[in-house]
Design a protein that fits this description.
The protein is globular. The chain contains two helices and five strands. It is an alpha+beta fold and about 90 residues long. Strands 1, 2, 3, 4 and 5 form a five-stranded antiparallel sheet that branches.
Length: about 90
């Protein structure tokens, strides 16, 4: 069973995963990465989330799977739309 590592990375910071976790497939590792992102966002909020991503790697091969904190893009678009609606209603 392959061991996958879930490194957190932004343009300014890198938090390596030294322990990793065993999963049967890359799909299982991807699902774990998405759950990890959800847990992180629950604790730290969405403000700076768009600059972060999870990079998944394994012992078995030399590839990486990059999972962006995509939720923040949707929230940012929603915030911009609300701001634009508020501004247009003031006129």
């Amino acid at each position: 069973m392959p061991r996958f590592y879930f490194h957190l990375m932004s343009k300014d910071s890198r938090i390596p995963d030294e322990r990793g976790k065993n999963f049967d497939t890359l799909n299982d590792a991807h699902e774990h990465g998405r759950k990890l992102i959800d847990k992180i966002l629950l604790h730290v909020g969405y403000d700076d989330a768009e600059e972060w991503k999870v990079i998944v790697s394994s012992d078995e091969d030399d590839t990486q799977l990059i999972i962006p904190f995509a939720v923040s893009y949707l929230l940012g678009a929603t915030r911009r739309a609300k701001t634009a609606d508020q501004a247009s209603s003031e006129f």
